[in-house]
Design goal:
The protein is an alpha+beta fold. 28% of the residues lie in helices and 31% in strands. The chain has eight helices and 13 strands. The two termini are 26 Å apart.
Length: 283
Amino acid sequence: MSYLHHIRTCNDHDLSGFRPFHVGADRVGWVRHELAGRLTRFPDVFVVEPDRVSLLAALGNFESRSKALARVIDALVAEGAIPSLRHEDYPVVTSWGQPPLLKIDRAAVAHFGVRSFGLHVNGFVRRADGLHLWIGKRATDRGVAPGKLDNMIAGGQPIGLTLDENLIKEAQEEAGLPAEAARRAVPVSVVSYLMENPAGLKPDTLFVYDLEVGEDFVPQNNDGEVHHFMLWPLDKVARLVRDTEDFKFNVNLVIIDFLIRHGYLKPEEPDYPDIAIGLRRPL
C-alpha cells in the first residue's frame, strides 16, 4: 500500500470497453458496449454506431434532450440495468463552466460516463501539537462506500446550484454548520480522476476546500450520511491513507492533496512527483 496506490486505483480504467457518447460534435461521456446494445431499442433518442453513441440530432435543445434521456433511463431502471433513481439531477457539460447540454439523474451518471463535479471540505483544527482533521465514519447503509472514512463535508454538484450554494447546503446537512461558518471555507485545490467501476466510467472533478474550525466545534450530521465524527491528528490520518483502504476511494486523494499543501508530504517522499501530478488528471 502507498499514497500512489490510491491515485492509481482512482485512475484504473480500460477505454476499449466503451464507446464515446456524443451530443452533436461534442463528446460528453462514455458508454459500455453492452449498454450501447440496449440503446439500439431507442432509435428515436440515439444513433448507435460501432464507434460511438450519439443523441439524435432532432433533439435540439436542453429540454428535449433531457426528457428523452430521462425516458430511456426510466426504462433501463425498470429492467434492472440501472439502479433506482436518485431524483437528483446532474448537468451534462463539455467542461466546467459551460452551459449544460442536458441533465441526467445521478443514478445514471457513471452508466453514461458523463463528467461529474463535487466538493470536499477538509475540516481541521490547529492545536499546539499540530494539525488535526475531522474525519467522518460513513453510515453502513450508504450505497457508496458504506462504513468507510470520509471528509467532514463532501457532496456532488447538482444542476441548478452554484458551488457556494451547494457548499452551504452540504455543510448544514453533513456537519451542522450555519451558512456564515460554511462561507469561511477557502477553495484551495482541484482533484480529478478517471475511474472505471461496475456501473461504468467516472470522470470526476472535486473542488477542494479547507475550513479551519475552533477546538470547541464538533460537527453534527443531519442527513444520515455519517454515523459519527472523529478528530484525529494528521499523523494518524496520513498513516491510515498510506497503509489502508479505510477511506472512501476519492477521499484518499483529497487528503493526499491536503498533506502536500500543508507540508506534511515533502519532495523526499518516494514517488512525490508522481503523487503530486497524479492528483490532477486531464479529463
